[in-house]
Amino acid sequence: MKTSYKMKHSLKYLLVLVVLLTINTAISAQQNVVKWGLDGLIKLRFDFEYERALTPKHTVALEVNAIIPRKIPLTYRAAFDLSTVGGSSYAISIDKSNWFVAAVLPQYRYYVTKMDAPNGFYVGAYLKGKWRKLTIEGNYHDDNGVNIDASIIGNVNTYGGGAQLGYQILIKKHFSIDFLLGVGLDHHRLDLSFISQDIDADYQTWEEKLNETLAPIPILGKRFKFDSGTDFLKAQFNFLFPDFRFGLSVGYAF
Question: How many domains does the chain have?
């Protein structure tokens, strides 16, 4: 939690720095570049970036990307027969799903070549805030008479940062092609909520069983935290994971 707290505040400070530097250099700035990320097309993601030169070697940039909220074309039906092992038959269905992703990445770049920024080879640093939300609605029923309509709401909040390097070329002083690679470390927080109006569901018992099942898992087991009530079961999981960045964008400099 402390790692996530520090990353959140580092992201805020860098955002403020980017804004202040942009305002202070409004008159003397040599170059601005507005870019569109081509790599986002693979994920059907809108990816935009603004970069501003502060000096012939230093620039700051702000990247914003998002996957517009949309329905996932997912319809799932599965039936399981456990009667041969002393269990019962049950079925699970997923009727509809929705997905949303948004991210903000402040960046600093230092251009190491003889050409003035924002042209040539550069090294730099970035911070990242990323937010994802998944909503699933479905049904569970078995041959014991249990029939539950339920919703699962999942949120994954990510804060991180790292180093990057790349090369940006300006064609005829106005058209840009920017390629970058980066590596960093992210802190992820996963929140899942299972919500149902079924009055027979014993979520407190489910919570106890989940704790008993997951607790023995080395390292990861103790990171799961659960909370339950009369109509819900919530789970939380925090973990660190390496981040690898790849970017390819085209833009216009002015």
Answer: 1
Q: Could you tell me whether strands 89-111 and 120-142 are parallel, antiparallel, or unpaired per DSSP bridges? A: antiparallel
Dump pLDDT digits (tens) for 68-100: 777 765 554 444 444 444 455 656 666 667 889
Q: What is the pTM of this model?
A: 0.75
Q: Which tens digit of pLDDT belongs to each residue from 182-215?
A: 999 999 999 988 887 766 667 787 788 778 878 8
CA distance linking residue 118 with residue 52, whole number of Å: 8
d(CA 49, CA 64): 6
Burial class (CB in 10 A: 0-12, 13-18, 19+), 170: buried
DSSP secondary structure, 202-217, as one string: -HHHHHHHHHHHHTTS
Q: Which domain holds residue 72?
A: 2-253
**Three-state DSSP class for 28?**
coil
